[in-house]
Amino acid sequence: MRVRLTDGTHEVDITTTPSEQATLDQVEAAALRLLTALRPPAPPPTPEDTPPPGRAPLGFTPAPDMDGVALTADAERSDQSERPGRYTEWGEHGT
Length: 95
Known about the structure:
single chain; 95 residues; alpha+beta; 2 helices; 2 strands; elongated
């Protein structure tokens, strides 16, 4: 069994032999722990990172717990069947 994880900079590759009784969950958990250990610690926040009082932050806010956060297929793709003329590659008049 082989598990390879990467974050674009660091890569962890774990290979087990058939005689080893490691499950996929165990190998994946070990790879995640190694990948986390390879990442450098995040720099501390600076005053520029926090918005002024009374102003809402733009974009994602730093949240220590992102469990359960995911995009659905509806959020990733638009439904082109609702207005097919609007989503053509060449515009409304084919130009």
